[in-house]
Amino acid sequence: MGDKHGLGKRIKDFYVKEYKKLFFIPLILFLLSALVLANTYFTTGEAIRRDVSLKGGISLTINAGYDNIAELEEFLESSFPESSVNLRTIESAGTIVGIIIEASDIEEDALVEAVNQKITLTKDNYSVETMGSSLGESFFMQMFIAVLLAFLSMGIVFQFYFKNIYATLAALFSAFMDIFITLGIMDLFGLRLTAGGIAAYLMLIGYSIDTSILLSTKVLKEHITEAVPAIFGAMKTGLTMSVAGIAATGVSFLLTNNTTLKQIMLILIVGLVIDVLTTWIGNVAFLRYYLEKKHGKH
């Protein structure tokens, strides 16, 4: 029991005294993510690999039932490893009566030939439509602008409430690192960005700002003499929120069979874990450095 308390005290003391060294943890993750995204850019021509909903491609609609959708999806992904393939089912009274396959970076004939190995296609039971890349690019740009506006709005609200530009920039930088590192990890997993994925990143921005508000309120607003007790008070609440969020999204990830929902939940799980580092190490380091410069040692 004494060893546990001793270890806990040593970790706590290290966290308090060596916060500048700890800041290198999120910084190194940030740089590694930058390398991953840069490698993707030089390999594929785009830093963030997008699926067909954001990139454009072809849509194959099959008016025939097929029971093993998971097997078909796995077959197509293995047949076209460099392409983005999405499958959706058309159901009537609980029975699959059709399939929609959306794919990018695949020739129409190659896709039809591959699907024909699993489902017999005739001129009467399928149709192919082309989704223009300009539409996908336009949608992607709109979502990108939405993310930028979310950052700007959060910054304005944060600055209005705290009236401290240093704390505002620290919170925004923490949120940016959270999003950027998560993007790098998702790219490392080989996951393509979808419209649902962008929604997950918008949620992450909000969550990151929430934990930064919690931290800054305790440290800057409550006029507590010592910053360290205030940080640990905020951390207790913040980590409880994070663990609850990770648990909830983890259960959702395990229980859902929907591909889009799985990606959203995975992004949130990874992002919430990274937020612990960017807020309680990165943001804390910024605020403690600021307070030490302003008031002396805290």
Topology, please?
Layout: H1 2-17, H2 19-22, H3 24-44, H4 52-55, E1 57-62, H5 69-79, E2 84-92, E3 95-104, H6 108-115, E4 126-131, H7 133-162, H8 165-188, H9 195-221, H10 227-255, H11 259-295
Antiparallel strand pairs: 1-3, 1-4, 2-3
Helix pairs in contact: 3-8, 7-8, 7-9, 8-9, 8-11, 9-10, 9-11, 10-11
Please tell me about this protein's structure.
The protein is of the alpha+beta class. It folds into 2 domains: 2-49 and 135-295, Multidrug efflux transporter AcrB transmembrane domain (Multidrug efflux transporter AcrB transmembrane fold, Up-down Bundle), CATH 1.20.1640.10; 57-131, 2-Layer Sandwich (Alpha-Beta Plaits). 71% of the residues lie in helices and 10% in strands. The chain is built from 11 helices and 4 strands; from the N terminus they run H-H-H-H-E-H-E-E-H-E-H-H-H-H-H. It has a 4-stranded antiparallel β-sheet. Strand 2 (84-92) and strand 3 form a beta hairpin. Helix 7 (133-162) packs antiparallel against helix 8 (165-188), helix 8 runs antiparallel to helix 9 and helix 8 (165-188) runs antiparallel to helix 11. It is elongated. The mean pLDDT is 84.
Compute the average pLDDT.
84
- How many domains would you count in the coordinates? 2
| Apparent shape | elongated
CATH superfamily of the largest domain: Multidrug efflux transporter AcrB transmembrane domain
- Termini separation comes to 30 Å
Q: Major sheet: order of its strands? A: 2-3-1-4
Q: How large is the count of helical segments?
A: 11
CATH class label of the largest domain: Mainly Alpha
Radius of gyration: 24 Å
* CATH fold type of the largest domain: Multidrug efflux transporter AcrB transmembrane fold
| Largest beta-sheet characterization | 4 strands, antiparallel
How many β strands by DSSP? 4
What ranges have pLDDT less than 50 throughout 5 or more consecutive residues? none
Helix content: over 70%
CATH architecture verdict of the largest domain: Up-down Bundle
Please state roughly what percent of the residues sit in beta strands, choosing from under 5%, 5-15%, 15-25%, 25-35%, 35-45% or over 45%: 5-15%
Order of helices and strands: HHHHEHEEHEHHHHH
